[in-house]
Structure of Nucleoside diphosphate kinase:
Amino acid sequence: MAIQRTFSIIKPDATKRNLTGAIIAKFEEAGLRVVASKRIQLTLAQAQQFYGVHAERPFFGELCEFMISEPIVVQVLEGEDAIAKNREVMGATNPEDAAPGTIRKEFALSIGENSVHGSDAPDTAAEEIAFFFSGLELVG
Ligand code: RTP
Ligand code: MG
């Protein structure tokens, strides 16, 4: 597998509980390098645009309100097979189903407040990175 980049969000439930460092440590232990990072607070319009793929889902309103409730940390992670590796380190969407040692098993509060987001495929990773970062901000 080649070196890939993926997009990650440390979500409001985690930034609020001061878990940013603990979550980044999990990425680094898994061999993922942080090549871009910033702490921001989304507007409602930005959250709705980012999660547009889920617009028809029953949890869309709740998800967008949650994502703007506190600052988030958006990052680009780089490494061997980074997209799949990041999702492995994150664990299942619902922390009750997440494997031991994963971020969501250790830190997530619920299926909604689940501490992290990670891109699910190369095309979405590229779109999500471009949504938040300019080329100048990516330092490999
Ligand atoms: P993500 O996109 O955040 O990395 O998570 P994912 O792929 O594991 O989950 P996805 O199906 O894409 O859902 C996006 C986010 O929506 C919230 N969600 N809430 N209340 C619910 O039933 C529910 N289901 C999903 C979660 O915050 C999930 O990460
Ligand atoms: Mg997803």
User: Anything to note?
Assistant: The pocket of ribavirin triphosphate (ligand 1) is lined by residues 54, 59, 63, 93, 111-112, 114, 117-118, 120 (CB under 6 Å).
